[in-house]
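notes to self, project folder thing:

trying the whole complex as one job this time. last attempt i did each chain seperately and stitching them together was a nightmare. two parts in total, labels are on each line so i dont mix them up again. if this works i'll redo the older ones the same way
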Amino acid sequence: MTLTWNRWGTLLLVLAALVGAHGEAAAQHLLVPMDRGQTDHLRAYGLTYAVLEGGESAEWLLNFRDGAFLLPDRSWIRREAAILGVEVEVADAAEVARIRDAMARSDQEAVLLEAAPRIAVYTPPNTAPWADAVTMVLEYAGIPYATVWDAEVLEGRLGDYDWLHLHHEDFTGQYSKFFLSFAATPWLREEVARNTEMATRFGYADVPELKRAVAEGIRSFVMEGGFLFAMCSATETLDLALASHGTDITASFANGRPPDPDAAARMDWSRALAFQGAEPQLSASVNAFSDIDTHQVNTSARRALGSFALFEFSARADPVAAMLVQNHQAVIPDFYGLTTAFRAERLKPGVTILAREGDRVKYVHGSAGQGSWTFYGGHDPEDAEHQVGDAATRLELHPNSPGYRLILNNILFPAAKPRPLKT
Amino acid sequence: MRHLAIVLLLPLALLGPAGPDPVSGAVPGSARVSPLGSVPGSIPGSVPGSMSERAAVPAPASDPGRIVARLAEPETRGAARAELLDWIRGLAPDRAALWLHLAASLDRLAPELGLEAARAVLRADEAGAGADAAGPRREAGGALGLLAMEGPPEEEAILLALAARILDPVDARGALFLRERYLALAEADPEGAGPEGWRGPEAAEVVLFAAQALLAGVVSSWSPPAAPPTAPPGAPAPLPGVAADLGAPADAASPRAEALRILETFLAQDPGHPLAPEARRLRTEALAGGREVPATRGHLR
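result (full assembly):
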């Protein structure tokens, strides 16, 4: 039989396709190292998220090369990695087997990542993404998110999301006590007007009541299986709002009444997620919320910054905590926020401490109902003393930021399916 | 400010990681970013300017017109290039950028085209960058652009990029037109312009300046062919990175989409290029819809 050109052409095309397919399959995986060899740790999370969003699965190799990712080898993923500037290594089947073997012989574990989490950020309308560390790093890493605020929470729409981040909100309804320094500024007046309007719209007497209801909505989100991540003042004030449902801890500028002098005794810490036994700061002239925060940055009791150390966790025995602390740097310079870190004795029993410096706990995790929460003190991991009006941090200058990396560990956490422990 | 940053960065990338050594005249070059792709190593390795030749070169001329005139004569051409590099070292960065671009181009151009390019740069330099410069610069850049289009393909890339640089301060549309032509020809026939093709050292700056212009809303009269898909089948449909509620994704035919496309093509081809970080920054800006990042309302008093 004589092959015509058409048949030869077809045969060549088929062969080329087979070779191409084989080339893609033979390499099998792309390893995203997360140790110091990674060029852009933050966008590596964005790449992994994009893989999940593209309908592929990935593996998170806990405690292996500081939390490497194993991705399927696809041409579009290679291209995306190149565009993002993320270092990837081609790992053929033999290399993957060698990695798995090495992991099996040490305290390392592969966690399957399946679906891209649906992410929401609780933030007031018109807030720029660069006002908040989480939105900044989401934008930098290329991870999409939606924004929600009081209306969405009160209307029960948090169920549309897997993961909720709280912008640095003051859930006690005292506008972070910015009245002390910024009473005349347009942005604070706008904030007051916006919150007052929202309280009226939903039938609350004042903003502290509105915010307490919102805090309850967020608590319900967690209890029903959501993942909550809060930073800075949102950590402390969320629990203060939840615990103060039977009393009044807010200054008179917020609701027109003086606070309850016995508020501390009337706090109901059973409603709170992380803290207990705290003393609310009832003075309107002291710019602090309670004694939960260790650094009291805007008061005369301000403490100096140090460095906090991440704890190591067994990837097999405690994969959840291990996921949250994957990092290429174990000791990280501290950074201020209105809530910088938490007093250890104010934490509830059962809370997992992920990072601390002495009695100052920086990073904690816990479960509530069907869901879980993580609190991370401080405002901006790469701007230790961020002031009002300072320029936004440019994350392209900090692609390997270990402090920002902790935020992104939380983003992928809801995508993980930890294997059941062998008993 | 960003424009200035690129103006300062690009000549460095064209010349290599470091400037000429003030003592030896040697330029620690990098084959990776050297404009002299076929001659690895330092620029003086190909531009006569080494210690031995410098001994025969008269004291550096301070008159760029005289240097350009000396480029016309075969017997003085090599020395004139060395003089040019010496002279550039004394210039302020914004003025030096165009001359550096010329210096990085001369070795790859036929002598007569190199001379035309040098004359065009001289006219642009003499005109400055102020309001009165528009006419002479348009004339010089336009003529060089036409020369590029009429010339051999090996030199078109070099001349288009240089002509666009001449137009930059006075004619953003014209400069974008030349760069869009460059990019379209490069995509249509990547190997069509000789060994370095359209991926010569000026390729990165063409992409960055074109993207910057597109993001700034500059519209040229260039009619690009239908854009190829940004990713092969199998990739997730929308480009990741656009916040769900931060504006509509770029329309496929919009300048923003075109900026994204050329930046991503560049990054996919050469992710480790020294200017890749700037390309990524521009890409982030494009994804965010060109928002400027102002000061924040932070947390501390």
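what i see at first glance: Chain A touches chain B through 56 residues (CB under 8 Å).
need to look closer tmrw
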